[in-house]
Amino acid sequence: KAGVTQTPRYLIKTRGQQVTLSCSPISGHRSVSWYQQTPGQGLQFLFEYFSETQRNKGNFPGRFSGRQFSNSRSEMNVSTLELGDSALYLCASSSQGAVNTEAFFGQGTRLTVV
Amino acid sequence: DQQVKQNSPSLSVQEGRISILNCDYTNSMFDYFLWYKKYPAEGPTFLISISSIKDKNEDGRFTVFLNKSAKHLSLHIVPSQPGDSAVYFCAARGFGNEKLTFGTGTRLTIIP
User: Fold this and answer.
1) Residue in B98, B101, B107 to test binding to A, most A beta-carbons within 10 Å
2) Which of B38, B47, B100 would you mutate first to test chain A, the one with the most A CBs within 10 A?
3) pLDDT tens-digit series, residues A9-51
């Protein structure tokens, strides 16, 4: 079974631009969550999607948005990029088949804003 | 407000000995706990989990202990191997909620 796939792996953008990151969950997994990892703040929850609906949202500004498609693939968008948005963005999927299920992470997308 | 805390930023253990990583939490609504291992520039790899109805879960060299009254969990790795050198994160989740709250991580170094 293929794992969680994130594309691209690396990205360099300029301040003020926008960026879209993609995540393909493990086959059969319907829940996709996004996290931001920075040296100062650790792993912070951005949002979670299930069946194309955002179910949970972290404390990030509205510049951070996402969506999920009918095949469970998800995209995350950041508009008007700031230097502080430089981070490793991680996507996780889980099956939601049982109450206690593990979340499996992709390799991440390293975003650098210059 | 750091709801999940890993108070030891780093830990060094000799190969073959036991590694004990600790984690404390404050939110009594958390009912499922997970440990992840992470290498730089990669995503976290799931290691082991435990439900709040249990106090111990084992998987090979890894054992997680949960003390609900103390809001404390620990990960034991025995015997420790050089490949175990990585950053370890504990994470917690509330019932029916996919959101994971992570600790700040502990860097484990296994000394050959």
Assistant:
1) B98
2) B100
3) 999 999 999 999 999 999 999 999 999 999 877 899 999 999 9
Can you spell out the DSSP letters for A13-60? Answer: E-TT--EEEEEEPPTT--EEEEEEEETTTEEEEEEEEETTEEEEE-S-
Give the per-residue pLDDT at A13: 98
Residue that the structure tokens 């000394």 belong to = B111
**Inter-residue contact A111 to A91 (CB < 8 Å):** no
Q: Give the closest-approach CA distance of B79 to chain A in angstroms.
A: 25
Kindly list the distances between the CA atom of residue B64 and the CA atoms of B32, B57, B75, B108, in Å, as whole numbers in the listed order: 12, 5, 5, 16
Among chain A residues, CA nearest to B31: A100
Both structure tokens of A75: 């995209």
The two tokens of residue A94 are: 């889980």
Q: How many residues does the structure list for chain A?
A: 114
Contacting residues of A for B95, CB less than 8 Å apart: 99
**CA distances (Å), origin B111, targets B16, B21, B84, B100:** 9, 16, 10, 31
